[in-house]
Automatic annotation (TrEMBL):
Keywords: Membrane, Transmembrane, Transmembrane helix. It comes from the Bacteria. It holds the Pfam family Lit. It comes from Holdemanella porci. This is TIGR01906 family membrane protein. The chain crosses the membrane at residues 102-122, 134-155, 192-220. InterPro entries: Lit.
Length: 229
């Protein structure tokens, strides 16, 4: 029972780290705007820097549930129009639902994590950190296999990975946008998504490595004598 709970604790910790990494990176306009400057994207896609920056802020605020819609206006190749058309708007409804569900999963994982910690605090005070460290390390080893698999896939064929991701998480084909008619795909080219996914993965690795180092240190140096390693 204790081993199962400690393993669940480890996975809950990993889930919280993953979703936090996505939220702090993917929903941060300061991630995108410098990339736009480096790529000189505004000039390439025929809009002003102001319109481009406002468009990404509009999108991220909607995903973060800070506004009810993504209605806005831009001048694209000299033509004034709504920022996003009906197809793009419908796709973002799906994206927002996916993101908000991920947040709910992370909040649930955090609650379970806290409850497991309290359980060990009340029932296994002396060995609490030993159990939690061991459970986290066990979960981390399984997570590493997933990370290596997807990491290799992302680095070697990001287009294939990104297509697979959309076919798994979306039941329609609204995500297949046309750069000739859909501004969203122009302001978020595959290069941006590649850098975004890479940044999220690096952030998750940093969290996991730090937590793993602390867990290993505790198990080697601090675990109670007689505790099964």
């Amino acid at each position: 029972m204790r081993r199962v709970l400690s393993f669940i604790f480890g996975w809950c910790f990993i889930i919280v780290c993953v979703v936090f990494s996505i939220k702090s990176t993917a929903l941060n306009p300061d991630f995108y705007i410098p990339k736009y400057e480096e790529m000189d994207l505004a000039s390439d896609i025929g809009v002003s820097k102001k319109d481009l920056n406002q468009s990404i802020r509009l999108l991220l605020e909607y995903l973060d549930d800070k506004r009810a819609d993504i209605k806005g206006y831009i001048t694209w190749y000299g033509v004034s129009q709504e920022t996003f058309n009906e197809k793009e708007t419908s796709h973002m409804v799906d994206v927002k639902a996916l993101y908000q569900n991920a947040l709910r999963v992370a909040k649930t994982a955090l609650i379970i994590l806290v409850m497991i910690v309290l359980y060990f605090y009340w029932n296994e005070t002396e060995c609490m950190f030993a159990y939690l460290s061991k459970g986290f390390l066990t979960a981390m080893f399984t997570f590493i296999f997933m990370l290596v698999f997807f990491g290799f896939w992302i680095f070697t064929d990001f287009t294939s990975f990104w297509t697979w991701f959309h076919t798994i998480f979306f039941t329609n084909q609204l995500w297949l946008l046309d750069p000739n008619t859909d501004f969203m795909i122009c302001m978020l080219p595959e290069t941006i998504f590649y850098k975004l996914v890479l940044a999220c993965v690096i952030k998750v690795i940093c969290f996991v490595v730090l937590a793993s180092g602390l867990a290993i240190y505790y198990m080697v140096k601090k675990a109670p004598i007689g505790f099964e390693r």
